[in-house]
Amino acid sequence: MTHSLSIESLTRLRRPTQRCVAALATLALLGACASKDLNGYGVGPQAERAAMAQQANRDPAPDTPGMYLGLIDQMQSQGLYFASLAHIDAYDKQYGASPDTILLRADALRMTGQPEAAASAYGQLLKTPLAARGHRGLGLIAGGAGDFARAAQELDQAAQLTPTDAVTLSDLGYARLRNGDVNGARVPLMKAVELDQKNTKIVSNVALYLLASGEPAQALAVMNQLKLTPDVRAAIRGDAAKVAAAERGQARAQPSRPTLGQSSAGTVASVQGVEPAPRLLQRFAQ
Description:
Serine Threonine Protein Phosphatase 5, Tetratricopeptide repeat; disordered C terminus; elongated; 15 helices; 2 domains; disordered N terminus; mainly alpha; 77% helix
């Protein structure tokens, strides 16, 4: 008994093979990009993001609003803010705007260099359950424009609404430092670092606080524990110089304010009397 395959059968067999070959070629291309990235070329993440953006544009929108919002949020977590704006437009057209999409739009606008439009979107959140995110976004925009007094006000509002949000507390502490209020930065930064001891940005802000409060040895110990690169250390020291200049400006504006170390309200006294540096460093090491 002989067996034969028709042309149609051969075609059906060949199609899966072709798909497999195409899939293997795609994997090989992604592997090549990854290997370049490991060698320091920096091509891998860019190529991967471009591929994901193309795939996102090809794929149909998810069937439910929740799934679609999850897709948009994932795009933003991968840095695809422009693509996310296009999908937010599509979402709003299909399902209508909501506080969640307004927040996603505001974040995307801020991250794509559109601060005025972002501020307008964040402002729409102030009378919604996401008011804290609105205040935080407005604070970040103000800080980006160098208005650290306004940034501190907005971030303080956000922290009052979400008192256990470590990132917001850290941002508030940084804004107060840059506004020259070193003593006012201590409490939110100590809260932030105890809430999230593994967040490098938060601990870096604490190192900046220690530098600004006259504890360079303790700041250096923190930076050594974090194994910060020379560029990051230089940036922290650069910020410390800006904090010192802002603090001098605040002192000139308020001559009666106690200077560093003159009283128990001073910054060094606060660090040494309330939060000893060795205990602080022990918490970082845990």
